[in-house]
Structures are given as C-alpha cells and as structure tokens.
Amino acid sequence: RARPAGPPDGGWGWMIVAGCFLVTICTRAVTRCISIFFVEFQAYFGQDYARTAWIHSIVDCATMLCAPLGSLISNHVSCQVGIMLGGLLASTGLILSSFATSLEHLYLSLGVLTGLGFALCYSPAIAMVGKYFNKRKALAYGIAMSGSGIGTFILAPVVQLLIEQFSWRGALLILGGFVLNLCVCGALMRPISLKEDCKTAPEFLEQNYVPEPEKQDLKRMSICSPLIKLWPRECLCYCSWKEYDFLLMPGFMVLAVSILFMAYGCSPLFVYLVPYALSVGVSHHQAAFLMSILGVIDIIGNITFGWLTDRRCLKKHRYFCYLFAVGMDGLCCLFLPVLQSFPLLVPFSFTFGYFDGAYVTLIPVMTADVVGTSLLSSALGVVYFLHAIPYLVSPPVAGWLVDTTGSYTASFLLCGFSMIFSSALLCFARLAKKIKRTHLRSLTGNTALKQHIWTNGAIAYSVTAELDQRDVEFLAVDTNSFSNR
Prior knowledge:
The protein is mainly α. It has a single domain, classed as MFS general substrate transporter like domains (Growth Hormone, Chain: A, Up-down Bundle). It contains 22 helices and no strands. This is Monocarboxylate transporter 12. One of its GO terms (molecular function) is transmembrane transporter activity. Pfam families: MFS_1 (PF07690).
C-alpha cells in the first residue's frame, strides 16, 4: 500500500492525541502530585528537606534520563509495546512504594522504577502526535500536553483526599492502579509510515550486504526498521548515526543548552509550592488548591498558545513565543518570595501555570522545526534526556538552600534567574543568526564573489558549511540566478 505523502492532520490522529493526553495525565500529572506527599514523607521518615526532595528528583530524572530508551524501543520494536511495558513498570513502582519502610526504598521504587516506566511512555507518545499532524501540529500538541494540567487540577485535591482517608500508603496503592491506564493508551498508538521516513543508505545497499532480492524491499523501508537485523555492523552503524546526526546542528545545540537552564529553573517550583504555601500560613486544602489552579491554567496555556501559534501571523514567530513564555515564568519565580498569603499566591499560580503550559506545548513543535518530523522521536528522546540532570539536582539544591538559609528566597531567585538566562540565550542566538544571514546577503550581492562561488564548488561549500538550511537555499537560488544571466 502506498505511503501517505504527509501527515493526515486528522482521522485516527485525534485518537493519537487522546492517547497522548491520557499518557501526560498518567505520567507528568502524577509526578507533579508527588509533591503533595512531600510533607507526609518528611514527617513519617523524620528527614530534612534535601533528603526528602530526592524522591521527586529521581522520578523526574529517571523519566527524562531514560527518554532515549523509550525512543529506541519505539523506533525498533513498537510504540505500542513500549508504552504498555512502561505502564506495567510504573504501576509496579507505585504499588511497591506503598510498602516502603525507608526513603531509600522510595528512591528505588517510586524514583527509579516508576520513572523508568514513565520514560518508556512519554517521549514515544509525544512523537506519535508529531507524525500525524503538520498544519495543526501546535494545536494538536496543545490538546495532548494539556493532560498534564487537567490531571494536576483533578488529581491534586483527589490525592490530598486519598491521603486523609487511606494514608499515604493507600494513596500510592490507588495511584498504582490508576497508572495501569497507560496500557490502554499504548493500544491506541497505531503506527504510521510517511514518505519522508523512507530514507535509505544507498552506498550500503549497492554493496553485497544483503541478498539482491531483498534490496528492493529494504529500499522501501525506513533505515531504522525492525528488519535492520538483516544488515551487517557497518550498515547498522550508518543507521544509528543517521538517527542522531541532528546532534551536530548548531540550532539544536543552542536549544539543548537553553533547555538545561530552563529545566533547572522549573522543577523546584512544583516540589516546593505546597511546602512554601504551608510555611506562610496557608492551610493544607488551600495549598493543594494552588496546585489545582496551576494545573487548570496550565490547560488554558497548552491549548490557547498551541492554537495561537498555529495562526499564520504567529506561526513564523514560534521561536520568540517560546522564549517569551520561558522568560515570563522566570519573572514569576523572582516575585514568589514576596507573595506570602493565599490571595497573593493565587495570581502567581494563574500566571506561572499559563506560561508553563505555553512553553511545554512548544518544546516538541520547536524540536520538529529544527530536526524535521522523521527524526522527531529520536530528537525528543535527547531533549527530554537533557531535562534529567537539572531535574535530579535542582530540587535537592533548592532544599539545601532552604535548610541553610531558613527561607525559600534563595531557591526561588536561583530558579527565576536560570529560566531568564535560558530565554536570553535563545534570544541572543537568534540575533546572531540574523546578523550572519544579513552578512551572507551582503556577500552574495557582490558580483565578483558570485562569479567565484559559481565557478568554484569548493568555495561554495566552505561558505555554506556553517549556515542553516534557509541560508543555503538562499545562496543556491542567488548563485543560480547569476549563472543563468
């Protein structure tokens, strides 16, 4: 059967969006709600902020650190198998956590095992949405990623109620059963093969690595299909490199560095918002309600920002929309230490939640714009992998600052400045790129240089080697027009 030329932008794609929506509820929303257990764990095990914060850190770190493993299973086995396996692992981890007798037990069961299960589900589900949508990609991602906000809004008060009724052990046991819904989500992930995925390695196929009758079949397959076992080591190495050659793209490198700082800044807020609210005299139910507000406004940010950045007037400005959202969240963190009552914390939850939903929606969209749809699964695995170390170290560092200084001010200021730096880095990178493109246009305006480039292919390559795809196309068009004249 002929492969579709491009993403269908609908049809079964909406079921993929629904499946991804449920995955984000069962992974990211559940992870956020672990902060509600923070005070319970601290009181039960009698530990300080820093040691208790490692639980949330390890969950987030394992989820992001193992994201490439989720992409690998999705690419080479099946997205459905990967998500179902992840659901079983995550559920097992939560159930085992309900029997914990020490923080170390929680580090392994709730941290490592549950985090690994979430990793096998999260990035493959998000990548599948990118394969089914193109024109309405940001909107589709907005709806899919809103599961994190909706899940937080619903689960935060429910988890608090479960803790009051059944203790933290009973609440974890019930969450373990709830997370089994990831297996249902995996069943919805019907794979799709697009023409742009059908890349081959001609230099290998022309050689005698595979029997002649199989060459035509392999040419019609993706270079990373399960049939790669038919190829020898040399072709396997080529395939693996082609899957990750985006790592050397300058645009992806800048995005990767900015994500490190952004991830460091955003993680402690979800761990310490409830404890901070309790420390300034807010009741337990009001503190949980702050998380619910943050979650529901997160939904609005997901969907409205996704819809807005799909409009023609803003579609080409997604980059600046993303850095604006990250910068606004950084400013919110800077102002948080002066907000010391429930009426003041409510507007904070509104603002931070909205812009958090906004930039989370645009992360996979920006990644697809940089590397293309065919490499999106692998690229998202790397992007979420980059979240791992900041997610691991930032909550304990913030907890150490709280233990040392006796207040949350230093922790929140560090988070705010980290996110603002992430936004500023992207802004400076875009300005540098614009200056380079302007310089290129001035060079190609020189007739003598055009003649030299046209007559010397090596010089043309050296000029374009450091430029992105749009610059290369501009130079090619300009020199071709000169040669025609």
